[in-house]
Amino acid sequence: MASVRNKVNPLLIPYVLTWRRFGFRTICSGRTGFAPSTSPSFADADTPPVAGKKVLETFAEEFEIGSRKITLETGKIARFANGSVVLAMDETKVLSTVASSKGDAARDFLPLTVDYQEKQFAQGVIPTTYMRREGAPKERELLCGRLIDRPIRPLFPSGFYHEVQVMASVLSSDGKQDPDVMAANASSAALMLSDIPWGGPIGVIRIGRISGQFVVNPSMDELSISDLNLVYACTRDKTLMIDVQAREISEKDLEAALRLAHPEAVKYLDPQIRLAAKAGKQKKEYKLSMVSERTFEKIENLAKEPIEAVFTDPTYGKFERGEALEKITQDVKRALEEEGDEEGLKILPKTVDTVRKQVVRRRIISEGLRVDGRRLDEVRPLYCEAGNLPVLHGSALFSRGDTQVLCTVTLGAPGDAQRLDSLVGPSSKRFMLHYSFPPFCTNEVGKRAGLNRREVGHGTLAEKALLAVLPPEDDFPYTVRINSEVMASDGSTSMATVCGGSMALMDSGIPLREHVAGLSVGLVSEVDPSTGEIKDYRILTDILGLEDHLGDIDFKIAGTRNGVTAIQLDIKPAGIPLDIVCECLDPALKGRLQILEHMEREISAPRIQDDRYSPRLVTLKYSNDALRRLIGPVGALKRKIEEETGARISVSDGTLTIVAKNQSVMEKVQEKVDFIIGREIEIGGIYKGIVTSVKEYGAFVEFNGGQQGLLHISELSHEPVSRVSDVVSVGKQLSLMCIGQDVRGNIKLSLKATLPRPKSKTHISVDEPVAPASPEVNVWAAIEDVSNEQEKEVADAGPETSESTLKSATPAVLIRSAAECDEEEKSAGLNSKGDNGSKSPPKFDKKTRMSSSFLESSFSSRNAKSKRGKDAILDLLSDDESEQKHTSEAGLHSKIGSDKNDATTETPMSANKLKLGMKVTAKVHQIRALGLVLDLGGGIRGMYRFEPGAKRDFEVGDELRVKCSSFSTKGVPVLSLVKEE
Predict the structure, then answer these.
(1) Whole-number average pLDDT of the chain
(2) What is the domain class of 685-754 according to CATH?
(3) Average pLDDT in the 390-409 region?
(4) Which of 267, 264, 258 is nearest to 230 (CA)?
């Protein structure tokens, strides 16, 4: 027992428990205490010193908002910072610190810097960069920094020009909460704890809406299905900042969301005040850069009248007005230099700017006149032009007053989507809008370098506005990039980007639901000096750059005719009442509708693109083994195809996506892909192959990714061929049609089926074979030259039965060409009435009997060679020249069949029961220009073409007696009227 006591100091615990007994100060004063390791009275001289235990005094506040528990804590982390707070919600924690410089540098602005960081350790991940370190700030980090900066900046006192830095970093993230709003509230609490003068606290809240119900503090999962993402910041009675992304929410619903957000955001204020009372520092007396009344009055007397003369002349343009105001400043400067007024010279620019602000604001409030002579609710003159750069996928030029923006659209493959490394949200985005503000747009000399916070913020606002009207990803597989280049700037270039971007998207053929337009609303108010309350104000529609600088707010609102899609509100004074903010929504709507009318007059529907420049995208399905063959070792084969053709190839699980600049490039890529990995073989499909060997009876051809096919001597030409080598040779490349399989499973190919058929001497006319479409792919119809009306017309024709496709195994039904059918019919002694005049029905022996399913298969194969899918139906109703061919062909097949073909049926119809020659009663479903769509019952639709000189005055619902004459490639019945005897 004695040995144990020698190892443990029995006096350590009592010293820790009596922390305050020794007079140690708390963390608020910046000092901490250490418990001594030994006591001089009791310690042995031979006992070595033991380290004491450091005690951190922490302070915390817990509260609940929107059913989520929130904790504010200080004192444990970042103790040397002027103010530091850790805010926790669930398992997500954010640290925010604030510091200020001690010097009194001469400035005329507030050098506030807000940095937001998301390091990968917060989610337990090592960065994938080469150095395994986080690099330059990402776009999301810049945006979150702006989100924090905008509400806290107006609350610093006037004349406070000391450097302040706010740093927010995510310590841990569970992926359930977006840390941006948490960081904004933590930054407010840190400023409250610091000795920096600041007019807070503020509360920041996020509101979502799911199935019409508003949700406070929604999680990331809830936000993904919400049609509203509202971030709202306020003091106890005034609004400071609004940021909205929505899916066409009405102004009424938006106002309801704002009314809900304010009281919820106010719940953040009292916990911050209580925490500051327990652990906050005494506010320090900083030196404020204030202008003396005597100096201000002197400069005002010199500059006021000339400034009023400039602002009352609406003929001044932006630069003429700027030059006149600069001349006034120089005149005042010379007057002060003559007097030797050093103080006045030091503050001259800031003071002259204040005089300008007073003159403009007084004239707007008292007279209702603006600097350019417009009414308060008047939008500047507009100019819209879409497709001004025809070589590009899409382009548009938009001008509003002197503000001008050029927007271009580039379409890419799904693999071109931007990869995101943020802690929360999606891992990539397929729609990007990049906004550029070059120096020449304001006639200045500047340097372009890196990501600019302003450019990122404006581009993201326009991106949010347009994202709401894009078609869903399943219908719209492209990656889209919009480039917005500001050509001239005089206010609201981000809203001009929304308008120009919307027109450019339409010009590129993207099926937007609605046009999106935006404009900026301003506010000029008159404040009572004694109470600080607004006693009068005016709302300005479509503000100039000068009105933005001299006004109180910049309220950017974008949306469609149906509702708002994006909002960004920046406020310069220390808050605006929410009632005034909501009042701004109505003039913004009226101005937006005026802009939408001009845009719709220029382009109101997705444009059909020229094949030379319009991109093509196809999505093909393959096995993963086939895709591995296409990629090649280390992706070398895929890269080679991309380099040779200029196309982009994306490979995912079982899916191959190809994006090409135009149709010709797409065909080259598909040809290379087909040759490497092939595609699903179908009867009537055209394939390119190379002759590998020549035999007496034909040639063997390698095609479709290494598969072997037999080109029989009888399929070389329409004319008799004596020797195979006279037509083909080893190594020759041919375009061949697949016509079926023989009994041994060999794929049968035909060269003559791809060649023009010589004129037939018989009365029976058969169309020349036409190469069918390549395998059915998922192509975005808006980019193609096929109209949506044609697509719908074909779809209405009836249920489409799947085409016969040839697999590696032998098919259950023997598929033969039309020529083979004719030969077998002749050899079996089958003669129709049209051939020999015999009226007796055809008879079959046991060897040559053919089932109705065989007839359908052979006829479908024959049709596949003469017409492709949808075109067969369109030609049925539109091509008068093909009437005789159709009639004779239908007559041929109506007489080749069993005895049962002439029987009628009154039983419920189904796709399996309908046979060639069968007579049924049908109802008129639709009346087209050149024919009828008939309802056969059982969900079966058929087509009837008007015959020359026959009756055409049908009505929907009429019952007709018809006979099945043939089937289209897609299995749609082609019908003819039964003449009553």
Answers:
(1) 79
(2) mainly beta
(3) 93
(4) 258
Nearest CA-CA partner of 114 in 72, 63, 165? 165
Write the single-letter amino acid at 37: S
CATH 2.40.50.140 fits 912-977, yes or no: yes
User: Residue 114 pairs with which residues in a beta bridge?
Assistant: 166
Domain covering 616-677, topology: Ribosomal Protein S8; Chain: A, domain 1 (3.30.1370)
The fold adopted by the segment(s) 382-602 is Ribosomal Protein S5; domain 2 (3.30.230)
Q: Mark residue 628 as left, alpha or beta (left: phi above 0; alpha: psi -120 to 50; beta: remaining).
A: alpha
CB-CB contact of 753 with 737 (8 Å) = yes
Using alpha carbons, select from 273, 279, 243, 270 the residue that is nearest to residue 258: 243
Query: pLDDT per residue over 102-151, tens digit each?
Result: 776 667 788 999 999 999 999 888 988 888 888 888 999 999 999 999 99
Cβ contact 82:282 at 8 Å = no
| pLDDT value at residue 679 | 66
Q: Which fold has domain 59-128+135-210+226-279?
A: Ribosomal Protein S5; domain 2 (3.30.230)
Cα separations in angstroms, 798 against 817, 873, 967: 26, 10, 12
Distance between CA atoms of residues 717 and 755, nearest Å: 8
pLDDT at 244: 96
- Report the first-to-last Cα separation within the chain, whole angstroms: 125
- Checking if the pLDDT of 768 tops 70, the result is no
Confidence grade of residue 297 (pLDDT, cut at 50, 70, 90): confident
- Under 8 Å between Cβ of 187 and 135: no
DSSP notation for 805-840: EE-SSPPSS----HHHHHHHHHHTT---HHHH---S
